UniProtKB/TrEMBL annotation:
GO cellular component, one term: cytosol
GO molecular function term, any single one: metallopeptidase activity
Regions that span the bilayer: none
UniProt cross-references to PANTHER family, sorted A to Z: METALLOPROTEASE PMBA
Organism: Azospirillum humicireducens
Full protein name: Modulator protein
Domain called Metalloprotease TldD/E C-terminal: residue spans: 240-455
């Protein structure tokens, strides 16, 4: 099933697209050569409980819109939560006045009509049913009780359940108009094991578009408790250079480093360690990485980008080779290229590139088979700090996890640092076969040989 922009106008029960159309028309009448506008309407409920008692139950609703106007090559952006006729009239006046005095930006501008998305699939990314407070309370209760029932758990940091739904609408003077809804439901539990200076904590969580797709609450709680118990009595290890495994809970962070490094603005400024690597092998030949905005019920799926441009599935890394940058209109013009449809934006700033659902394809070997080869190594389950240099690729982060001895996870380890350079890490990477698409940015267990462990 596909939906066209004209259909969107006919099925605009809340009138948000008509509101944006009117706002753009006022901007054009006031002297703007071009304009676009974006609107967000959101509602959310969040529940937190600890040791069986509800500590927080909050509901919030918000609405915000932003107007961007162009006078020649000058642009200005203003936002407002007030949608009265008087407020919107003043919004247009402020935007035009600002645009007339700011410096020119030769790369700014809205999409050409031929770049616009004309139809899009139904991605099923909005659950229209809002869960009751009782449902959220029950989910949190079950998760916390299951976590506390795990032998060795001594205390709870609590369980959280939440729901949110948003309407996103975009319109522009080039004729584009589209809107869609997104929803999310989440559940988490966090517990403590041990006492005094020997305490350790861990957690588990899940997040889905539909509440019916959430993992079982008791399973989430048990996993949180069992993860925490496995961390008891950690040891320190000596500094060395060994193979390092990244658990799926942390391996997806490596994809974030990649997408940041291939973001158009970083490439245009020359501030990325991958700035000269287009078309070259930057990963091991076995690695393929996909960006797919059309995943059904995907947490980061979208029918079009924030500039109304068509979005499509792209292979970012194919057999280890870098194939594309992530571009919005402005960064594409800077680089003399075409936008890749990755624009995202809020109401108070211009668009910028952002990935959709990104995942590393599963490898051919199991995690157990990959571990079996390791005499000494480190299995990472937690990372701390932000020690990643996007200009040089240098990587250094605090870590916790398990030491590997003779192919087995032998004992917990904490208070160490793992270090390397992302260029080398990517080239020495192997993916296991345990990929699960859970969070919108996903990777299987990953093995990287030759990383430095800084310990005792």
């Amino acid at each position: 099933m596909t939906v066209s922009p004209n259909d969107q106008h006919r099925t605009d029960p809340s009138g948000v697209l008509n509101l944006l159309d009117d706002l753009i028309a006022k901007a054009r009448a006031a002297g703007a050569d071009a304009a676009d506008a974006v609107l967000f309407d959101s509602a959310s409920v969040s529940l937190a409980q600890r040791l069986g008692k509800t500590e927080k139950l909050e509901r919030s609703e918000s609405g915000d819109l932003g107007l961007r106007v162009f006078v020649g090559k000058r642009q200005a952006i203003v936002s407002s939560t007030d949608r009265s006729a008087k407020a919107l009239g003043e919004l247009v006046e402020r935007a035009i006045a600002m645009a007339r005095v700011v410096p020119e930006d030769g790369f700014a501008g809205i999409a050409d009509p031929e770049q616009l998305s004309r139809s899009w699939p139904d991605l099923d990314i909005c659950d229209t049913e809002e869960p009751s407070s009782e449902t959220l309370i029950e989910r949190a209760r079950i998760a916390e009780e299951a976590a506390m029932a795990v032998e060795g758990v001594t205390n709870s940091e609590g369980a959280d359940a939440s729901w949110s739904r948003s309407t996103i609408a975009i319109a522009a003077s080039n004729g584009f108009a589209g809107s869609y809804g997104v929803s999310r439901q989440s559940l988490s539990a966090s517990v403590i094991v041990g006492t005094g200076t020997g305490m350790e904590r861990d957690y588990d969580y899940d997040s889905k578009v539909y509440g019916a797709d959430l993992r079982d609450a008791a399973e989430i709680g048990r996993e949180a408790g069992e993860r925490a118990v496995r961390r008891l009595n950690p040891r320190r290890v000596k500094s060395c250079k060994v193979p390092v495994f990244f658990d799926p809970r942390v391996s997806r962070g490596l994809l974030g480093h990649l997408t940041g490094a291939i973001s158009g603005p970083s490439i245009a400024r020359g501030t990325s360690f991958l700035k000269d690597k287009m078309g070259q092998r930057i990963f091991a030949p076995s690695i393929t990485i996909i960006d797919d905005p059309h995943v059904k019920r995907g947490l980061r799926s979208r029918p079009f980008d924030a500039e109304g441009v068509e979005v499509t599935r792209r292979t970012l890394i194919e057999d280890g080779v870098l194939t594309t940058w992530l571009l919005d209109l402005r960064s594409a013009r800077q680089l003399g290229l075409q936008t890749t449809g990755h624009a995202a934006r809020g109401t108070s700033g211009p668009p910028g590139p952002a990935p959709a659902n990104v995942y590393m394809a599963a490898g051919k070997r199991s995690r157990a088979d990959m571990l079996a080869e390791i005499k000494d190594g480190f299995y990472v389950t937690d990372l701390m700090g932000m020690g990643v240099n996007g200009v040089t690729g240098d990587y250094s982060r605090g870590a916790g996890g398990f030491w590997i001895e003779n192919g087995q996870l032998a004992y917990p380890v904490n208070e160490i640092t793992i270090a390397g350079n992302l260029k080398d890490m990517f080239l020495n990477m192997e993916a296991a076969d345990d990929l699960e698409l859970r969070f919108g940015m996903d990777a299987p267990t990953v093995r990287i040989d030759g990383m430095t462990i800084a310990g005792m």
